[in-house]
């Protein structure tokens, strides 16, 4: 929630999480090595390794000693449930605040949501 | 290679370039050495490379004294801002000399780097442009694979594509052949992401030695209505502030715990990271 301190960490972590959510990376699949990430983002490999460690701590990745990093079998479910928890605070509340600030009645917003639901 | 510098003093006549500098680097990492003009960066690197003898204090690399220690200095390489320093002969001759001097020289890698930087083996070093000369110096530094390799603003005159080719080559070669690398630079935004640790010196003294990510996490920009920003930052270390109409942005230095960060967000303040360059500017003071 308060991880705005390190943009590079976040870029890498977000990239991997997004890949997991849209199933570009599946459970038990191996991810690129820290060195490959370091070269791609032009960052120190220790920085890339820290981003990976963060994902391990969050249960998104796990390490196979001597082989590399893999996606946890339940990574997608973990991320989906965590995103569900923060969805209203991260997405809906700011949207409502924005709507109020620019003078869109909430009934219009709800109408739009119902319209999208019906599609 | 491990580096231990204690109370290091270097004087040139009346000028004190290094003023009781104490610093330990455990080695095997890419270090960024940052400092303003005249802060002592080149002096420090010159002592580490045994180009100059310390006036006082001790300098040890892997526990050994450095000055006039030939066995050690063969394993230490300093590429200066002038780039390739041997004016006699061709690029090929310079490579031959470097190979003779450097026990870990990789001739095949050196040839690859010639292509990377668009250098021709038969070209005369003397008639090279500033940028080519720098590229040549960088090539010698990389292919030498010295266990301690230092680049002192070695990019001078190199155009942006060549500089980025250097950064990419450095990173790739460091990952393939881990060693201790020190990069001194003013182009902080370009290279700071390569540093595992950062050393900032000023007036010949150590200002900061920290892991890059830790240092970056110490800096927070707080932006919002001036009054709220002032209330929030009261009693904290403020490196600098800017104001645009009713909006103020203050740069904080120091760890902000989650409770404080939450408080800021609740007060409608925006928190953001501070770039290494801005931290550096504010940690080393006023314009000259």
Structure, described:
- The complex is a heterodimer of chains A (119) and B (288).
- Chain A is 65% helix and 7% strand.
- With 119 residues, chain A is mainly alpha-helical.
- Chain A has a two-stranded antiparallel sheet with strand order 1-2.
- Chain A is elongated.
- With 288 residues, chain B is α/β, with parallel strands linked by helices.
- Chain B has two domains: 209 residues, Rossmann fold (3-Layer(aba) Sandwich), CATH 3.40.50; 66 residues, Alpha-Beta Plaits.
- Chain B is 35% helix and 30% strand.
- In chain B, the strands form three sheets. A six-stranded mixed beta sheet of chain B has the order 6-7-8-3-9-10, with helices on both faces.
- In chain B, strand 12 and strand 13 form a beta hairpin.
- In chain B, helix 4 packs antiparallel against helix 5.
- The two termini of chain B are 35 Å apart.
- The mean pLDDT of chain B is 93.
- At the A-B interface, helix 1, helix 2 and helix 3 of A face helix 6, helix 8, helix 10 and strand 14 of B.
- Chain B: It holds the Pfam family ABC_tran.
List the defining traits of the structure above.
heterodimer; A: 119 residues; mainly alpha; B: 288 residues; alpha/beta; Rossmann fold; Alpha-Beta Plaits; four-stranded antiparallel beta sheet; 11 helices; 14 strands; transcription regulation (chain A); WH-like_DNA-bd_sf (chain A); transcription (chain A); DNA-binding (chain A); WH_DNA-bd_sf (chain A)
Quick structural summary:
The complex is a heterodimer of chains A (119) and B (288). With 119 residues, chain A is mainly alpha-helical. Chain A has helices at 7-21, 34-41, 45-57, 75-102, 106-118, and strands at 61-64, 68-71.
Taking the alpha carbons of the first and last residues of chain B, their distance comes to 35 Å
- Uncertain runs of chain B: none
Largest interface: A-B, 18 and 23 residues
State the helicity of chain A in percent bands: 55-70%
Q: Tell me the number of helical segments of chain A per DSSP (H or I, 4 or more residues long).
A: 5
Integer average pLDDT of chain A: 89
Q: Largest beta sheet of chain A: what is the strand line-up?
A: 1-2
Nearest-angstrom radius of gyration of chain B?
A: 21 Å
Give the integer mean of the pLDDT values of chain B: 93
Strand fraction of chain B equals 25-35%
């Amino acid at each position: 929630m308060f991880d705005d301190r390190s943009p590079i960490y976040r870029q890498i972590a977000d990239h991997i999480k997004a890949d997991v959510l849209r199933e570009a990376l599946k459970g038990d699949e191996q991810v690129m090595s820290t060195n490959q990430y370091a070269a791609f983002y032009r960052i120190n490999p220790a920085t890339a390794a820290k981003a990976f460690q963060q994902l391990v701590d969050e249960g998104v990745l796990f390490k196979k000693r001597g082989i590399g990093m893999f996606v946890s079998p339940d990574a997608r479910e973990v991320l989906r449930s965590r995103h569900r928890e923060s969805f209203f605070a991260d997405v809906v509340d700011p949207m409502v605040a924005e709507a109020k600030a620019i003078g869109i009645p909430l009934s219009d917003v709800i109408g739009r949501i119902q319209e999208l639901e019906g599609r | 290679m491990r580096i231990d510098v204690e109370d290091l003093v270097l004087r040139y006549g009346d000028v004190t370039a290094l003023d009781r500098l104490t610093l330990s680097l455990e080695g095997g990492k890419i270090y960024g050495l940052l400092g303003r003009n005249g802060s002592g960066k080149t002096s420090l690197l010159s002592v580490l490379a045994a180009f100059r003898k310390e006036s006082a204090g001790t300098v040890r690399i892997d526990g050994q004294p450095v000055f006039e220690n030939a066995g050690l200095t063969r394993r230490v390489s300093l590429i200066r801002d002038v780039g390739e320093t041997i004016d006699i002969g061709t690029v090929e001759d310079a490579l031959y000399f470097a190979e003779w001097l450097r026990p870990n020289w990789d001739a095949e890698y050196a040839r690859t780097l010639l292509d990377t930087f668009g250098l021709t083996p038969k070209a005369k070093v003397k008639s090279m442009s500033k940028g080519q000369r720098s590229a040549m110096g960088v090539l010698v530094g990389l292919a030498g694979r010295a266990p301690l390799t230092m680049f002192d603003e070695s990019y001078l005159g190199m155009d942006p594509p060549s500089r980025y080719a250097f950064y990419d080559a450095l990173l790739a070669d460091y990952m393939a052949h881990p060693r201790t690398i020190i990069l001194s630079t003013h182009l902080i935004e370009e290279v700071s992401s390569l540093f595992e640790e950062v050393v900032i010196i000023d007036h010949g003294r150590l200002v900061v030695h920290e892991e890059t990510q830790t240092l970056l996490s110490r800096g927070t920009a707080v932006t919002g209505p001036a009054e709220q920003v002032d209330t929030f930052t009261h009693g904290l270390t403020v490196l600098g502030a800017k104001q645009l109409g009713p909006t103020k942005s203050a740069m904080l230095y120091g760890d902000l715990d989650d409770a404080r960060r939450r408080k800021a967000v609740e007060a409608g303040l925006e928190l953001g990271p501070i770039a290494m360059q801005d931290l550096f500017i504010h940690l080393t003071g006023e314009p000259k």
